[in-house]
């Protein structure tokens, strides 16, 4: 089934446009909540992955978060300059760079786990539990198609 045609396509009403606007609003809300931590919403995926011990190389983080290696390098440079993570060469394969949170980085990541739910819950405040479940289901369906 085709939902869009050249005759009915209007950017402002397209799914992609609306999803991007929602993402931007959530990121702006998150940036405001994280201001005192000196990190941005774009850093959350990195910090959460490292906190949980998954995707601990720049390459795996790039794939997981869907960002190119150049952006990943810039974000890691920023987090390293803030003292939140350290890079080290893998002892088995020197081509591989491993990432690890510092004590400050771990504290920051844990603080994010306290702040992020409030930001997301504020955006979802008008949803019923069933609507929330359906939204998640539909977003995953869209992502996995």
From TrEMBL:
Single GO MF annotation: DNA-binding transcription factor activity
SUPFAM superfamilies per UniProt: Winged helix' DNA-binding domain
Keyword DNA-binding: yes
Keywords: DNA-binding, Transcription, Transcription regulation
Pfam families: MarR
Signal peptide: none
InterPro entries: HTH_MarR-typ, WH-like_DNA-bd_sf, WH_DNA-bd_sf
Coiled-coil ranges per UniProt: none
Record bears the keyword Isomerase: no
Domain HTH marR-type as annotated: residue spans: 12-144
Top-level taxonomic group: Bacteria
PANTHER family: TRANSCRIPTIONAL REGULATOR, MARR, TRANSCRIPTIONAL REPRESSOR OF EMRAB OPERON
Protein name: Multiple antibiotic resistance protein MarR
Species annotation: Paraburkholderia humisilvae
Gene that encodes it: marR_2
């Amino acid at each position: 089934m085709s939902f869009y045609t050249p005759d009915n396509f209007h950017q402002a009403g397209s799914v992609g446009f609306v999803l991007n606007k929602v993402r931007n609003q959530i990121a702006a809300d998150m940036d405001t909540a994280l201001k005192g931590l000196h990190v941005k919403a774009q850093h959350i995926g990195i910090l959460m992955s490292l906190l949980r011990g998954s995707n601990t190389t720049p390459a795996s983080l790039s794939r997981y978060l869907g960002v190119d290696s150049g952006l990943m390098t810039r974000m890691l440079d920023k987090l390293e300059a803030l003292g939140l993570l350290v890079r080290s060469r893998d002892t088995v394969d020197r081509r591989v760079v491993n990432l690890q949170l510092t004590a400050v980085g771990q504290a920051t990541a844990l603080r994010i786990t306290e702040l992020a739910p409030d930001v997301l819950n504020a955006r979802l405040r008008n949803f019923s539990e069933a609507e929330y479940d359906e939204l998640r289901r539909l977003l995953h369906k869209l992502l996995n198609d």
